[in-house]
Design brief:
23 helices; five-stranded mixed beta sheet; single chain; 543 residues; elongated; alpha+beta
Length: 543
């Protein structure tokens, strides 16, 4: 995630410990994440600071401090995006979706999940996409859209299996309990649709994976699904065994809370099959846990179970009291939903602002880069850029043993033109010459630039000596056709060029400067012989 070599030992140790122990020691890692944030802020390490806040948010989420966790996640997504920590962006959207779902805000949950999937697709985050597909499937499962639930769970399973086939295991990309959860969710889908064969098939896979990496909440979910399968299959002994095991595990509050959706569905199942004693025992445990979370949505789900029971039993007084409480909790949820929308809009606004700021910076940087590489008068590459390109092209041809040539040229008697016609007309001549020179770039492997004053450079990559000679003739013809009057030239009555080039396959012991020197010598010969001409030389001409 980070280049650890640029941090000191303390920072590296904190990063390693946070990554290693965040899931198993959230309370301790929360404090270490806060310390890391202080270090990052002091060092003005924006990416590291965003990472530290992400770690804080995740630890708070695991510690069930949902409100504070949600606020931090909302705050850090733009900074994580700006520092290109895309996996953490996608994971942040995933947790925000879970939090929204846990508060009953299904549209907001779906929006967060889809935002996360978009990031996964853009940045090829396969493992995180498995989790997001699973989360979307859970949403559909919650309101009994079994077809779409199966679709997303199946997508997640297929992606997880591709990871396993490619790498030989789910880990370290996915934990085995996460893979087991996918098959458990598919089991639930088939239980709801009454498909015992598919339910048992997926249950067996989930149980095998759970056996390799046991977790209390996952095991509880498996036993609850097994109870419902036993009921559908008229397996009374199996049902009784499952109910007894679940009753004994209800004192594991952490597992009950982690498997909350499964437990609520199991409570509804107990109510439907007339197991009132077990139903109320379970509800008492759930109500105690939910009150501690201060979540109106979770508490409302408990109240909803009570309403259904009172209605079925004809207990009108208790029914009315429960419906009144249900209304109060719904109003509280609406307040939380409004606040959630505000936070989401804040994230979108900050992301858009950061995107615009980044685009503006990139535009400024691009303009500065162009200005630093382009000659302002002629629009050709400036001296720095064309010489740099000569060196790069020379090395390429040297390594690939391809022909290379440099041409150096200037305007004949340009000083006389400038002195007699004026600097503005002189600038026009330079622009005209640059335009003619640049026209050669329509041919492959030719690059042009202004060397300084009225001198220009042309680079020929992977061109024969005859081809270079032909291009030099082409440029000479272009200038003559323009027929720009030059009464003060001593070689013609129009503007002409003197051109010198050196051609060859660069040898290992040679460098580009030798080619430029030889091109300059060829240019000198042309000037000595009367100008308005061109000459390309090579190694054999030296012999």
């Amino acid at each position: 995630m980070f280049d650890l070599n640029r941090f000191d030992d303390t920072t590296r140790e904190l990063l390693n410990e946070i990554e290693k122990n965040r899931l198993v020691e959230p309370a301790g890692i929360l404090e270490k994440s806060r310390k890391l944030a202080e270090i990052a802020e002091a060092q003005e390490e924006r990416g590291l600071y965003a990472y530290a806040l992400f770690s804080q948010a995740y630890c708070l989420y695991l510690l069930n401090q949902i409100e504070e966790s949600s606020m931090i996640y909302t705050q850090i997504i733009p900074d994580l995006a700006l520092t290109e920590q895309w996996e953490l962006v996608a994971r942040s959207y995933s947790v925000l979706g879970i939090i929204s779902s846990g508060s009953g805000n299904v549209p907001m949950a779906m929006d967060n999940y889809l935002q996360g999937l978009r990031v996964c697709k853009e940045h090829e985050l396969t493992a995180v996409s498995v989790i997001l597909d699973c989360n979307i499937g859970v949403l559909y499962l919650g309101f009994r859209d079994i077809a779409n639930a199966i679709k997303y769970f199946t997508n997640a399973v297929e992606t997880a299996e591709r990871i396993r086939e490619t790498h030989g295991d789910y880990e370290p990309y996915l934990a085995k309990f996460q893979a087991a959860t996918l098959y458990l969710n598919l089991t639930a889908c088939y239980v709801y649709s009454g498909n015992i064969v598919e339910a048992r098939k997926n249950m067996r896979i989930a149980m095998k994976l759970e056996g390799e990496q046991p977790t209390a909440s996952l095991h509880m979910g498996l036993v609850m699904q097994e109870a419902q399968i036993s009921f559908l299959a008229d397996d009374t002994d199996g049902l009784e065994r499952c109910i007894a095991e679940i009753d004994q595990s209800m004192d594991n509050f952490g597992a009950v809370l982690d498997a909350f959706d499964d437990v609520v569905e199991y409570a509804s199942f107990l109510q439907k099959i007339g197991r009132d004693s077990e139903f109320w025992n379970l509800l008492t445990t759930l109500e105690e846990l939910v009150k501690a979370t201060k979540s109106p949505f979770l508490y409302r789900r408990i109240v909803e179970l009570k309403i259904n029971h009172y209605k079925a039993q004809g207990e009108s007084k208790e029914y009315m009291l429960a419906t009144g409480l249900y209304y109060e909790l719904s109003m509280k949820m609406e307040e939380e939903r409004t606040e959630s929308y505000k936070q989401s809009l804040s994230v979108r606004l900050r992301l858009e602002e950061e995107k615009q700021a980044k685009e503006e910076m990139e535009t400024v940087a691009a303009n500065l880069r162009v200005r630093s590489e382009i000659d302002a008068l002629t629009g050709l590459r400036n001296r720095f850029k064309i010489v740099n390109l000569i060196e790069e092209s020379f090395i390429q041809c040297q390594e690939e043993e391809k022909p290379f040539a440099v041409e150096l040229l200037d305007v004949d008697y340009f000083k006389q033109y400038n002195d007699n016609y004026g600097h503005q007309r002189g600038d026009i001549i330079l622009k005209e010459t640059a335009e003619a020179i640049h026209s050669l770039e329509r041919h492959r492997g030719i690059y042009t630039g202004r060397y300084g004053g009225d001198e220009f450079l042309i680079v020929y990559v992977n061109r024969t000596k005859d081809e270079v000679r032909a291009f030099m003739q082409e440029l000479k013809d272009i200038m003559e056709r323009r027929h720009i009057v030059h009464e003060y030239s001593l070689c013609n009555d129009i503007v002409t060029l003197s051109q010198g080039a050196y051609h060859g396959i660069p040898k290992a012991e040679c460098n580009y400067k030798q080619f430029m020197e030889d091109a300059d010598k060829a240019l000198y010969k042309i000037k000595k012989s009367g100008r308005n001409n061109f000459l390309v030389t090579s190694e054999e001409d030296k012999e």
